């Protein structure tokens, strides 16, 4: 089986119309029309599996660059060793963050609370909005 990429077909085209378009040139085994997950509308490209290489070549010769609707069809043979794209993952997967324990030396600083023991540091005024 040979996998074909067909791009540039109209967004209103469905699987049946695509199979009817290519079936005079080669026998279609499977079809995968790529759609938007939320709206379920076609994204304008599909993948077809054709039973033999001769049929795939006939489809490419007949339909490559052909105007269909308001778009031009682009057809390529997908290499057999091509893997589907994988989603990027964060290195190491998801883990809860780890925090290092910090030892404090001396008295804790006073940040805007009550003035220090000796009264040398005045309190900061609040911002006015």
TrEMBL record:
A Pfam match: RRM_1
Low complexity: bias regions: 107-119
Location of the RRM domain: 2-80
Keywords: RNA-binding
Gene3D superfamilies: 3.30.70.330
Lineage: superkingdom: Bacteria
Keyword Aminoacyl-tRNA synthetase in annotation: no
Region of interest (Disordered), residue spans: 79-129
SMART domains named among the record's database cross-references: RRM (SM00360)
The name this protein goes by in its record: RNA-binding protein
Species of provenance: Mucilaginibacter roseus
